[in-house]
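Supplementary notes for students who missed Thursday's class. We covered one full example, reproduced here. Read the sequence, then the structure, then the short commentary at the end.
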Amino acid sequence: MDEHYCLYALTWADCPANGFGPGVDSRFPVELVRFGRLAAVTSRVGLDQFDLAKLQEGTADFPWLSKVAVRHNAIIVAVARNLPVLPIRMGIFFTSRSSLIAKLAPYEANTAEFLRRIEDQQEWAVKIYVDEGHAEMMVLATPAPSRPRAPLANYLPTRAHGRIDPPLGKTNVFDVTKDLDHTGHGTERNAQPLDGPAHAGGGTQYLAAKGLHVQRRQQVHAMVRQAVLTVEARLQAFADSLQRLRLLPTTLTDRPEKMVWNGAFLLSRSTIRSFHAACEQLRNELASTGLLFELTGPWPPYHFCPSFEPKDENSSCRCTC
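Structure (token representation):
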């Protein structure tokens, strides 16, 4: 059976050599490959079960890939409980122990410097979600600022000089004064001619109601923006570093609420308790607005690692880096 070495993380050479259980291929245990001051946390994998091309192209079977990803992360977390680690993303494989050492040895100095720097640090993640229905109800319960009502003429197209208007029922106000969605762009999906229900119930009232809807949506978005700025500013004061991460869709979060902010904080251990207290205070402040605050960690420093790019394209490394 052809075998390769899967790389999980780099840590200090004095890392214990056992107690990590099986690797992503359950037939082989996690082992250490030491070089200089460092150790590579690895395990062998059989190519009869690991199709490297599919892994690198992202076309592997999703349930199987998810299982491998969970085990990959669990091994990194187990090492990080006792020692600083430089986590390696999933899908880095080497043909042999010697090729692994040859590839990693040039990075020994930079990796050692990183491990020393994070010995007293942890990564914590903060996510903010919005329950849009709750947020809109909160906005509706707040009295809207009074505004002078504009005359209906302000919403109608200007009559061109010398032009005769078409008969009533042929003009569509929304051909010109389009409805605005929450982004401020026009849309005709709710357009109705003047002789339809909107005109029968009063065009002025219809337009006023639509304007109020747009105003309320804008208030919700403004509230979310302000909350995000507040959270970021107050928590960044405790962090050595902050990484803003991409927002995840509900298909990945497995939550009905929409994610509106996602960030990772690198914290010194001396500030973690104060950071947690600030997070709890923010959670309580945001609860009544429909904004949900989520704190998770500690995590290995996934989002604060140095660049780990290959220098020799002719190396025997079979990887996606």
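Commentary. The longest strand covers residues 258-268. The chain has two domains: 3-118+303-319, 120-300. If anything here is unclear, bring it to office hours.
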